[in-house]
Amino acid sequence: MNEDQYFSLSKHLILVPCHSIWDPTYRSNDKIGNYGQDGGSWDLADFQKEGHDHISFIKHALKAVQTLIKHIVKNNDILDESLRNYPILIFSGSQTCKTTRDSEAQSYCRVLNTIFSNYKYGSISAFRGDKEIECLIKDIISSAAVLEMDISEIMTKSFITTEEFSLDSFQNVLYSLYRFKEYTDNYPNKITIVGFGFKKERFLNYHLNAINFDLEDVEYISYEPNPLYLNYLKNPNDIKEINNDPICIGYYKCLQKSEEDNALALFKNDWYGIRGKLAEKKFYRNHHKRFPGYKALELISFDGDISDREFFDRFIKGKMPWSKPSKLI
């Protein structure tokens, strides 16, 4: 199957919302090599360091590739070609770091390519016995073999691309839909999001509802941050015990409270992220003055002159290319 045929049968978006930028020039203290395993190789905020978020970034990326390959294999087994729905994996995130012009999306792709390209030379050992990462990499290798593909080739394939303009989670969703259309000439009818579990409500009940995408056609896969990650490495079979540790329980309560205060409460009153704090966040993250040029931008063009509900009812509900008439809200 050539690229055009694949794209014509692609209506499944696998989305990874990206959260940071990886520095490939960083040198690990243990001299294993830099595969993103050290927090020092990522541009992390303090709150991201506490939960070893960078490890979750890698797991999100690996899980997305695993999901991609499995869906390709599954679709290849469908005899009726018209029933196939091939996936496109999009890493979404802009140039949010002032000191580099790399985008978050590029960083995720680059770290994956480094891991995959050096697998035979021991990149898996860099993760110090993380069983989840080991299993993900090994499963990707076996699934790719079904497609007669070496793991080192994966990141060069056209079923993976980037979206490099989004500055918040709402734009991660919306701009990835636009990028999917730009890339395949289709809009997706299915979305799989791979990200943090504590953000699931934000994506499903706020962002996707705000653009009238049917939640029955959405799957959300998650890996959480872990403040006791180093304990997990020592005892990877005791993950349930670690998650029940008072430190973890308190951490996740604080994390959920922060999500409610700094995201859900804001998007509840600003569905499209165009006012107040949400608009300010995007402004201050856009260090390099990057602005999207997607043709589909006109689909949702809102300046806040009416209420969010009125805008949704008048211009969004039932009018999006992905809207389902029987599922209007």
Question: Would you write up a description of this structure?
Answer:
It comes from Tetrapisispora phaffii (strain ATCC 24235 / CBS 4417 / NBRC 1672 / NRRL Y-8282 / UCD 70-5) (Yeast). This is DUF218 domain-containing protein. The protein is of the alpha/beta class and 329 residues long. The protein has helices at 3-8, 46-50, 53-76, 104-117, 131-146, 169-184, 200-210, 229-234, 239-243, 246-268, 276-285, 308-316, and strands at residues 10-17, 86-92, 160-163, 190-195, 218-222. The chain is built from twelve helices and five strands. It has a five-stranded parallel sheet with strand order 3-2-1-4-5. The longest helix is centred in the N-terminal third of the chain and has 24 residues, at 53-76. The protein is globular.
Radius of gyration, CA atoms, in whole angstroms: 20 Å
Order of helices and strands: HEHHEHHEHEHEHHHHH
Tally of separate domains: 1
Helical content stands at 40-55%
Strand content: 5-15%
First-residue to last-residue Cα separation: 39 Å
Largest beta sheet: what is the strand line-up?
Answer: 3-2-1-4-5
Number of helices: 12
* Shape by Cα distribution: globular
> Structural class, judged by helices and strands?
alpha/beta
InterPro entries: C57A10.07/YOR238W (IPR055323)
Organism: Tetrapisispora phaffii (strain ATCC 24235 / CBS 4417 / NBRC 1672 / NRRL Y-8282 / UCD 70-5) (Yeast)
Protein name: DUF218 domain-containing protein
